[in-house]
Amino acid sequence: MKHYDVLYLLKENRNDFVSGQLISEKLGVSRTAIWKYIKVLKDEGYTIDSSSKKGYKLISCPDILTFEEIKDHLNTKYIGKKIIHYESIGSTNTIAKKLAEQGEENGTVIIAEGQTAGRGRIGRAWSSPKYKSIYFSIILRPNVNPMEIPKITQIIAAAIIEGLKELKIEAKVKWPNDIVMDGKKVCGILTEMSGELNKVNYVIPGTGINVNLNREDFQKDILNKATSLKIQTGSTMDRKIILGTILNKFEPLYEEFVKKETIESSIKICKNNSAAIGKNIRIIQNRNERQAKAVDLAEDGGLIVQYENGSFEKLISGEISIRGLDKYI
C-alpha cells in the first residue's frame, strides 16, 4: 500500500524532515496524493509533523501490531512474513481457518487488536480489551501425521517461554496450553486442525497474551486466576517486541518438528519451566475429578502423573484440564 511506502521513507529518515518533493520523486506520486497518504497514516495513529517548507517528519508510531510495525523485530524465514491485521474481530482462529480454507500460505499470521468472541479450550470465553493484549493465530501446513498435531501446542508454549525469557520475564507452562506467572494465567493457547485420516490440511495455533492489562481490566471473579505481564512486572510492555521475539523463537522449534519429526527442544523447555511437575494436582475430565502428582513430561508432550496407589498414567491433552489443589496451579 502506498501510504506504507511513505511511512518507510519517514522511518528511514527518522530524525529529519523529508521534503514533499523527495517523496514525490521517489514514489512517483503527486503532492496531493502524498497529503492523502499522510492523512491515512495519521488516522492509523502515527504522529507526523508537517511543514510547508521542510516537508514531513515522523514523531512517533502507534502501539499497533501491523507488519510495518513488527517487521523490524522479526528475523524469521517465513513465519510472520505475511501478517493480516484487524482492529477487532470475533476470533483470530476463526478468521485464520477461513483464510486457510481459501489457500492462504504457510506461516501467515492473523493478528487482532481486540477480540469479541475469543475462545479457550473446551469452549471457554476469553476476555479481550483492545490494544492491551496480543491475539494471534498462525496458519501452518505441516506434512505430518494428524495424530502428531497436539505437539504444536507444546511448541508454541516453549516459544512463548523462551521469548519472554529473552525479555527477562520468567513464566511457566501449565500443561497443556496455558502460560502462568505467580500461579495465574497470563496466556492461553488453542490449537485447531483440519485434516483427514492421514493428511493434515492445515493447523491453526491461536494465542492470547495478557500484556498491558491493569487489575481493573479483569472481571473480579477471575483476578485470583488471571494476570498480565504488566501486573507481574510493574512495567508497560512493548507488544511489538514481545510478538516478534515469540515468532522468532517459534520458527526453529517448529522446523525441528516438521523436518526432524521430534519436539525434543520444546519438551525440554516446557519440562524445565513446568508449573505442574513435582506438584499434587487435580485432574478434571468431563465432570470427574482425580488427584495425582505430576512427575514428568513425556517426549510426545503427554503429562505423566502418579496416583496415591503408586500407579502411573500418561495424560494426553484434549478434554482434560489440571488445577492446583487449592488454586489455579
Question: Which secondary structure elements does this structure contain, and how are they paired or packed?
Answer:
Layout: H1 2-12, H2 20-27, H3 31-43, E1 47-51, E2 55-60, H4 67-70, E3 83-89, H5 92-101, E4 109-115, E5 133-138, H6 151-166, E6 172-174, E7 178-181, E8 184-195, E9 200-210, H7 229-233, H8 239-260, H9 264-272, E10 280-285, E11 288-297, E12 303-306, E13 312-315, E14 320-324
Parallel strand pairs: 3-4
Antiparallel strand pairs: 1-2, 4-5, 5-9, 6-7, 7-8, 8-9, 10-11, 10-14, 11-12, 12-13
Helix pairs in contact: 1-3, 6-8, 6-9
Folded structure, characterized:
- With 329 residues, this protein is an alpha+beta fold.
- It has 3 domains: 2-60, Orthogonal Bundle (Arc Repressor Mutant, subunit A); 67-272, BirA Bifunctional Protein, domain 2 (2-Layer Sandwich); 280-324, Roll (SH3 type barrels).
- It is 30% helix and 27% strand.
- The chain is built from 9 helices and 14 strands.
- The strands form 3 sheets. It has a 7-stranded mixed sheet, with helices on both faces. Strands 13-12-11-10-14 form a 5-stranded antiparallel sheet. A two-stranded antiparallel sheet has the order 1-2.
- The longest helix is centred in the last third of the chain and has 22 residues, at 239-260.
Head-to-tail CA distance between termini: 46 Å
Order of helices and strands: HHHEEHEHEEHEEEEHHHEEEEE
Radius of gyration: 22 Å
Q: Biggest β-sheet, characterized?
A: 7 strands, mixed
Low-confidence stretches: none
Mean pLDDT figure: 92
- CATH fold-level label of the largest domain: BirA Bifunctional Protein, domain 2
